[in-house]
Amino acid sequence: MKGFKDFLMRGNLVEIAVGLIIATAFAAVVTAFTELLTAVISKLFGGPPEIGSITIAEINVGPFINAVIAFIMMAGIVYFGVVKPYQAMRERFVQEDEETTDEQAEILREIRDELRAGRGNA
User: So where does this one cross the membrane (predicted)?
Assistant: First the structure.
């Protein structure tokens, strides 16, 4: 049971789970935004009211184009909205940890040197 608990509490698993939950919940927002954006683009260029109705040689390619646009937008939003801020935050915390480790190492060196000096005097 302890091994299972350790597995669940690993940082990577928690990060992946949180990311999956957020991405799933955010997918609806991106889908709605994509539909809005494609409708605006269609109106601006005088095309069909929805990209989903575009056909090439009587083959309906509109849903594929919608899916590609949604994927690109989702990837961009997740990257710039989640990944980049997470990386920046993680780098900041790693630097703080390294600084703490350096300070601790310096204090330990000073203690060691004092102990060595004390042995020579005794």
Answer: 12-41, 61-82
Report the SS3 class of residue 59: strand
Q: Is 104 helix (H, G, I), strand (E, B) or coil?
A: helix
Tokens of 101: 């480790």
pTM reported for the whole predicted model: 0.42
Contact 67/38 with Cβ under 8 angstroms? no
Q: What is the pLDDT of residues 90-118, one digit of tens each?
A: 777 766 656 666 788 888 889 999 899 88
Please, are residues 33 and 27 in contact by the beta-carbon 8 Å criterion?
no
Q: Helix, strand or coil for residue 94?
A: helix
Domain residue spans of the chain: 2-121
Both structure tokens of 66: 């919608």
